[in-house]
Amino acid sequence: MRDTVLFLDTTLRDGEQTPGVSFHLNDKVEFARALEALGVDMIEAGFAGASPGDFEAVRAVARTVKTGVCSLARCVEGDIRAAADALREAARPRIHVFIATSPLHRAAKLNMNREQVLDAAVRGVRLARSLCADVEFSCEDATRTEPDFLYQVCRAAVEAGATTINIPDTVGYATVGEYGELIASICREVAGERDIVISTHCHNDLGLAAATTLEAIRRGARQVECTINGLGERAGNASLDEIVMGLRTRRDIYGLRDNLNIRELYRLSRLAANLSGMEIPPNKAVVGANAFVHQSGIHQHGVLRERATYEIMKPEELGIPQGGVVLGKLSGRHALREHAQELGFELTEHELDRAFEKFKELADRKKDITERDVMAICREQMHGSHGMYRIHSFQIFSGNRMTATATVSLQRGADIITRADCGDGPVEACFHAVDQITGFKCKLESYQLRAVTEGEDALGEVTVRVSNEGVTMLGKGVSTDIIEASCLAYLNAANRIIEARQERERTHQQETGV
Ligand code: MN
Predict the structure, then answer these.
(1) Any alpha helices (H) in 40-133, and if so which ranges?
(2) Rounded distance, CA 362 to CA 301, Å?
(3) Using CA atoms, how far apart are residues 430 and 286, in angstroms rounded to an integer?
């Protein structure tokens, strides 16, 4: 049996099914590049047949990376052909076809009997195989399917040309032991002596996704489907970092290899949180903010003497910044660039200029600049648009028994425009004043505030999701002042909305020749 576990990352497909999350095309391409640097074996880039936007995204990712790229497809001709078309320029394309096999899904969703499902699966895999040499087949809701029928469908899919058979625990229903047993029986009954990869796809409805996945690997699965930060439908998918660190930390149990470059783990986690606007809880395993923080005196003492007393993984090996002071007031542009590069940010000259400006501003307010601060600044700049509007100044008037008012001045070219407005609280008042200036009435869909570092002068990082006439954008702002960070984030999103509208008008003009 193979001794390497293959990782299929589905953040761009199942992860995008997280409630409230949608990635923009450029974000998907950027994320796919980062996944390639992480070394995942296969990127599920989307569901090409679902919409023109998904099709474009799969195509753009397929063009960009050299690693494997797949598109999901129902066992329907249109879906499968769309997947093949979108993957045309991929270096290593794969079509991933699926059909639901459980009695509940057959009756309630598909309105098909066993024979019809079997027939559709075989025809789907055959068509996919005629268009692409690498075909994966999934039985949706496999864990609630009658075992004999599951084996029958999987065997037929292998006969029809599938080389990877995926057994999804679509609704996170299986117990750990039960899922391991199922995977072992699939390895025996379906793969047998043939070189077929059995794959897992676990959901976290009962908090077991990583556990079921790891048990399945122990019982013979050699591909895992997972997402960064466990993003995904409902309670999410199995989280990639937990699986790979489980495998590596307990190599004595699993004895398997993987192709991942785990130094990229933390960066991917931050990138996923940024692009999705879904922050991870501090107590999340492996990449959570508290994962390597020792609170109790006894623990601290132990760790200082010998880290292995309370640490089973080395945070620096996962690319987690160690919180040390890296830059100070007198550090130059060159030092900032070097640190940014070490942290994995390739800034353009323009981005570096803006990051440096921000850094200088911050160094005036905050004594020590840590790696986490540098990361936050770089992220903000990379997320930034060239932006029609910039903040010049703001003033707020707020208290507990009064309506908050804000006066905001924005710079647009050489002009400074000032407007005042009120709102429920100072942040909303600022947002309304910004709307007055831009002329766009934006709707705030979500707002998150996170402290980048500990301590009194910690940086606050605000992430907002803002929509206007069907366009939704994330905005990000970083400052030691949370009102300023909020204002920057909102303006960042508003600028991106304005850019998107201008872009749309430009293409419209080109198309219509107006
Ligand atoms: Mn799923």
Answers:
(1) 52-64, 77-86, 103-105, 114-131
(2) 33
(3) 37
Among the listed residues 141, 144, 170, 167, the one whose alpha carbon sits nearest the alpha carbon of residue 233: 170
- How many Å lie between the centroid of ligand 1 and the Cα of residue 208? 14
Q: What is the pLDDT of residues 230-276, one digit of tens each?
A: 999 999 999 999 999 999 999 999 999 999 999 999 989 988 988 88
Q: How far is the CA of 273 from the centre of ligand 1 (A)?
A: 19
Please tell me the distance between residue 352's alpha carbon and the centre of ligand 1 in angstroms: 39
Q: Report CA(493)–ligand 1 centroid distance (Å).
A: 30
End-to-end CA distance of the chain: 62
163 CA from centroid of ligand 1 (Å): 20
Between the CA of 29 and the centroid of ligand 1 the distance, in Å, is 21
In this structure, what token pair is assigned to residue 204? Answer: 């976290």
β-strands 223-226, 197-202: how paired?
parallel
370 CB neighbour count, 10 Å cutoff:
22
Separation of CA 48 and ligand 1 centre (Å)? 16
Tens of pLDDT, residues 418-427: 999 999 999 9
Q: Which two tokens stand for residue 114?
A: 């066993």
Could you tell me the distance, in angstroms and rounded to a whole number, from the CA of residue 168 to the centre of ligand 1?
7
Give dist(CA 65, CA 37) in Å, integer: 10
Closest CA to 154 of 115, 101, 224, 215: 101
Altogether, the residues listed in the chain come to a count of 514
CA of 131 to the centre of ligand 1 (A): 24
- Distance from the alpha carbon of residue 170 to the mean position of ligand 1, in angstroms: 5
Q: Answer yes or no: are the C-beta atoms of 39 and 267 closer than 8 Å.
A: no
Mean pLDDT of the chain: 92
Measured between alpha carbons, how far is 89 from 65 in angstroms, rounded to an integer?
A: 10
Q: How far is the CA of 21 from the centre of ligand 1 (A)?
A: 15
Query: How far is the C-alpha of 216 from the C-alpha of 212, rounded, in Å?
Result: 6
Distance CA 343, CA 323 (A): 12
Instruction: Tell me the CA–centroid distance for residue 57 and ligand 1, in Å.
Output: 19
227 vs 224: CA distance, rounded Å: 10
Q: How far is the CA of 416 from the centre of ligand 1 (A)?
A: 49
- How many other CB atoms sit within 10 Å of the CB of residue 457? 12
Q: What angle do CA 289, 291, 293 make, to 5 degrees?
A: 85
CA of 230 to the centre of ligand 1 (A): 11
